Amino acid sequence: MRLPKMNVRKILKIYQTLLNKRPYLVQAVQTGTLMGAGDFISQTVIEKKSVKYVDYKRTLRFSSIGFFVGGPALRAWYGFLNKYIGSKGKAVAIKKVFVDQFIFAPTFLLFILASVGIMQGKALENIENDIKYNYLDVLKTNYYIWPLVQIINFYYVPLQYQVLIVQTVALFWNTYLSWKTNRNGLIQ
């Protein structure tokens, strides 16, 4: 059986239609998918597990953070920034990056670290220790990557595509976060 040939324009048109009709759902699905992909890459490339030994429950847990919280939260956050800071211009983009990196990023990273610990079934004390061990390092790494990405995103990219752009870059970021939050040396 031969699959129908779909061109990129048609796929983008379908994506645009779905994004306009159901922005939160589309962005939840893409964020969850890319967070799951980041975990899978972490396990297979960084941790060097064969596909046979991938912890798919771990991948599903990490993906669910993106689906249930990450995608919807990013969509709402970018809408908030657009509404209260603006949507065009260099000064607006710089203000958005500043607010994003000093309010959203520290809060959301803390949430991710806590969520991963909870989903791993760790005791509260161990989650707190993991956060103490990882949080500043993850936040510092965030500041090396995300301000530049976000200045480009906020200046050049229309609101409806901002989560997609961020999540495309975040595939690599999610790989790092998954590795960082699942290292064997951490308290279990």
Features:
channel activity; 6 helices; membrane; transmembrane; globular; single chain; 81% helix; mainly alpha; Mitochondrial inner membrane protein Mpv17; 188 residues; Mpv17_PMP22
Any overview of this molecule?
The structure is a single chain. The protein is globular. The chain contains six helices and no strands. The protein has 188 residues and is mainly alpha-helical. The chain has helices at 8-21, 23-46, 56-84, 90-119, 124-156, 159-181.
Question: Any chance you could write out the topology, listing elements then pairs?
Answer:
Layout: H1 8-21, H2 23-46, H3 56-84, H4 90-119, H5 124-156, H6 159-181
Organism: Parnassius mnemosyne
Subcellular location: Membrane
GO molecular function, one term: channel activity
Termini separation: 49 Å
Poorly predicted tracts of residues: none
Tell me the overall shape: globular
Helix amount, in percent?
over 70%
By secondary-structure content and strand pairing, the structural class works out as mainly alpha
The radius of gyration computed from the alpha-carbon positions, rounded to a whole number of angstroms, is 18 Å
Q: Number of helical segments?
A: 6
**Count of strand segments:** 0
* Fraction of residues in β-strands: under 5%
Mean pLDDT: 91
Biggest sheet layout: none
The H/E string reads HHHHHH
Transmembrane segments: 59-78, 98-119
Subcellular location: Membrane
Family: Belongs to the peroxisomal membrane protein PXMP2/4 family.
Pfam families: Mpv17_PMP22
Produce a short descriptive summary.
This protein has 188 residues and is mostly helical. Helices cover 81% and strands 0% of the residues. It is a multi-pass membrane protein.
